Fold this protein.
Amino acid sequence: MSPVTVVWCPGGNATLCRGTEVPVSKTQIAIDLFQQGDLRGALRLSSGFRIGLTREQQATLKRGFECLSNPGFYQQLGKDPQQLIDSATALFRSHFLR
């Protein structure tokens, strides 16, 4: 697979081109972000996914992203932000990188 420069456009327009005019799905954008090392971007995008995920899996992805954004809040709640991020990362790998 050739390298992709990922540009995320707020507003949900998920058309990204790899040198062609072929639109790429949001799932593929999230995978590309993850593979490029942008965990925050990948979780930001995938935390809104519903199709193919249980409610528990959706919550895991959302909490992982939220912990990257505001770890202090989860520490105040008595949660370990790094553990929640690791759980979201493991779920992303197992669900999207099959």
User: Anything to note?
Assistant: The chain has one domain: 26-96.
